[in-house]
Amino acid sequence: MPLVNDALVIENVEKQYGGLRPLRIRQLRIPPGQVAMLVGFDRPAAEVLVSLITGAALPDAGDIASLGASTRHIVDSDEWLSFVERFGIVSDRIVLLDAMTVAQNLAISFDLKLEPVPPEIMARVTALAEEVGIAAEALDTPVAQAPPLLRAEINLARAIAFDPEMLILEHPTATLSADDAQRHAAIVKRVSARRRLTTVGLLMDEKFAKATGGRLLSWQPATGELRERSSLRFW
Predict the structure, then answer these.
(1) pTM value?
(2) According to CATH, what is the number of the domain 1-86+166-235?
């Protein structure tokens, strides 16, 4: 696949992963800065697609171009590590440190000195927390005591800490109530717009997908088709 201008291009991809059928995606193009919610991905399928988009795995057939180049052209682990740093991933597979505070969980993105967090790092933590809606008084909360929405905000903050070019949301509302999911969608919408992020959601939560204000596509697992849907139909 040649160099492309779109942030993500998927063409005729298949990947065996132990499901009832292979993961199939016929065609998808997402331009830079677009918010696109792909509805219909269960957890195993979403995990596989994250690996394919970030080049951690290669498709059995077809091609994926992420951030300008085919993932098949990544030649070694050093190149892949540099490539994957361009993504921010929100997933409950990424572990939070329950024994530490919210501030420490954010600070670890920048520095391993956490007892106490250095003032210059704390300034970055405070700005990052404010961006994703974490109140200043919540920064001293042990993560083990953090409610689900606060944990979701921590995951989002860590995903954007290093200014990624693409944000991938893997079932971002799996642990959230319906009301909290709507609040979180508003935060994702604001962060994506402010940073002009290409944001890709892989999820089952249609209400969250609509609330982000992004492009809606419904995935058909049997055929791999992604059907465009207008958000206006759902309001």
Answers:
(1) 0.93
(2) 3.40.50.300
pLDDT at 117: 87
> What does the domain layout of the chain look like in residue ranges?
1-86+166-235, 92-163
Could you report the per-residue pLDDT of 31-47, keeping only the tens digit for each? 999 999 999 999 999 99
SS (H, E, C) the chain: CCCCCCCEEEEEEEECCCCCCCEEEEEEEECCCCEEEEECCCHHHHHHHHHHHCCCCCCCEEEEEECCEEHHHCCCHHHHHHHHCCEEEECCCCCCCCCCEHHHHHHCCCCCCCCCCCHHHHHHHHHHHHHCCCCHHHCCCEHHHCCHHHHHHHHHHHHHCCCCCEEEEECCCCCCCHHHHHHHHHHHHHHHHHHCCEEEEEECCHHHHHHCCCEEEEECCCCCCEEEECHHHHC
